[in-house]
Amino acid sequence: MRSDGNDQYLEATGRYAHLLDDPYTPVAPREPITADVQVLVVGAGFGGLVTAARLRQAGVSDIWVIDKAGDVGGVWYWNRYPGAMCDTAAMVYLPLLEETGTVPSAKYVPAPEIQAHARRIATTFDLYRDALLSTDVKSIAWDESAARYIVRTDRGDVLRARYVCASTGPLHRPKLPGIPGIHSFAGHTFHTSRWDYAYTGGDPAGALMSGLSDKRVGIIGTGATAVQCIPHLSRAAGELYVFQRTPSSIDVRNNQSIDPQWFAGLAPGWQREWMSNFTVLQTLGFAEDDFVKDGWTDISIRIRDRMARMVKAGAEIGPATLLQAYEDSDDEKMSEIRARVDAIVRDRRTAEALKPWYRQLCKRPCFHDEYLQSFNNPTTHLVDTDGKGVERIDEHGVWVGGTHYPLDCLIVASGFEVGTPYTRRSGFDVIGRNGVALSDYWAEGMRSLHGIHVHGFPNFFVIGFTQGANQIANVPQNYVENGLAIADVVRHAESKGATRVEPTPEAENDWLTFITSSQRGLRGNPDCTPGYYNNEGKPISRSDMFNGSGHPGGPVAFFEFLDSWRQTGEFVGLTFT
Ligand code: NDP
């Protein structure tokens, strides 16, 4: 436990501001643009692309997509580290597969294929036409007399947008560990989300990083990113030192290719069914089939089935039985994961240090079939810090437990900001009616209707999952479902000739009361080992509660609710003027 919680991390500002630079696409000079825009979508990751695609499907022709990156893809644009892939099954993770006629190559697909899919969505829905890439939004301010947002960018653009969709992403702003002396390291260093292939050699497709063959390489962090790139580093580096604070749980991956013939036989509408099936099973629900069948659904199915057996044997249906079923299933699962470490890793001390001792859902579960094996490679060394983290860094290397590890290259796999203010992560504030800033309106926590609409910010849509489904194991499902609702709202406003759409304060308050009436989905188990899944072990404040709440019935209930809310065509809670 650390008393500083999230404050232990350094922000990518000042001497670390270069962390946010785009190393992949040179910024092409262009003249500033002044234009009237019907819909401006900020952020060209899956959230922005899917929303824009839904709007296109709803008949909106004037859609501009803007992103500071040099191409679309969001986190899949930035994260090009070797081995990057999505460990949620492509059949449910890649949005709009049917609409774009895409067959994923495998059950879990690599990052370049995911970015290519993002490009395919942009091409299919003609979103490149009015895309402003390598362009950073600086301010968004509502002009009441024009009923438009005035949006300014770092390229001098002034866009007057009727609607703004903000899809600025939850986990994209790199952070650094606040390790004493981190700035003093004189060797080569970079964050995993800005991989320096010019130094390492190799490429995002996994070619051997020949530039590292004579190098002593260190990597700080053993989260989902590190787990994927360490096997590649292990193969390439002269010596590799893995600095571990908390071991990740590494479950089986078992990737398989997808048979295009089988895929061709899927009935229209299959993807929505698959997404729904995944979510039902992932949230302890009942379904006859498990389409995805992997580690994400496995833990829930174990809990659910154990609970059913206990009830059959006479236990009462209720929270105590559920808790017991959860604890027993988790214990069983984690014992299997620890036994797997023993079965794979030859050195006993290393194997012990690699075993996660906590509950699986305390931290983000990982799945890999080569990570543990890397520690059998004699040039790969696990430096376990006994939960304390790296002690300090100097010009020549890293200190742990009084031992100095000299390094040529230090790779930082310390993740991304979570739980920091929305406007800090997006890099701009939004000024609504009467000059109210979104950062002020949300100073004590997010306030919204359905996680999408905000009172005082007409024609502004938040793209995310907070205060809605909170579906985090398959984030894009939030986008495909919420995108349908946003598109219907815009279509309705246009058909009525309304220039403003906004939730009433009563509807917003009622929604907040409703979602905070249950603790479901709140990440706050203080018994867990700290991390972003439990607010770094800090107690949940009132604003954390607002920021972390979702529909009390869970993601499935929210998606069903939102679907019928939009289909009635009444859009209860919104005013169109
Ligand atoms: P994480 O935040 O998950 O991991 C950061 C790592 O850095 C942790 O192991 C952390 O240890 C370690 N760390 C932080 N400070 C120190 C320190 N002072 N000394 C030593 N170690 C330290 O970041 P990732 O980039 O790995 O992943 C971020 C998220 O991105 C994932 O959780 C996931 O949601 C997403 N992702 C998704 C993938 C996918 O397949 N869909 C793949 C990769 C990432 P500790 O655990 O003790 O805090």
User: Could you please say which CATH topology of the domain at 32-173 and 418-576 applies here?
Assistant: FAD/NAD(P)-binding domain
Shape: globular
- For the termini, the CA-CA separation is 51 Å
**Strand count, sense and closure of the main sheet?**
8 strands, mixed
Q: What share of residues are in beta strands?
A: 15-25%
- The total of beta strands comes to 22
- Backbone structural class: alpha/beta
Give the fraction of residues assigned to helices. Answer: 25-40%
Bound molecules: NADPH dihydro-nicotinamide-adenine-dinucleotide phosphate
Low-pLDDT residue intervals, each spanning 5 or more residues: none
- Briefly, what CATH class of the domain at 32-173 and 418-576? Alpha Beta
Radius of gyration: 24 Å
The chain-level mean pLDDT equals 94
Question: By CATH's scheme, which homologous superfamily of the domain at 32-173 and 418-576 applies?
Answer: FAD/NAD(P)-binding domain
So how many helices? 19
The CATH architecture of the domain at 32-173 and 418-576 would be: 3-Layer(bba) Sandwich
How would you describe this protein?
The structure is a single chain. The chain is α/β, with parallel strands linked by helices and 577 residues long. The chain has a domain at 32-173 and 418-576: 3-Layer(bba) Sandwich (FAD/NAD(P)-binding domain). β10, α7 and β11 form a beta-alpha-beta unit. It is globular. The mean pLDDT is 94. It binds NADPH dihydro-nicotinamide-adenine-dinucleotide phosphate. NADPH dihydro-nicotinamide-adenine-dinucleotide phosphate (NDP) is lined by residues 85-88, 171, 177, 179, 220-226, 228, 243, 245-246, 364, 385, 389-390, 413-416, 531-532.
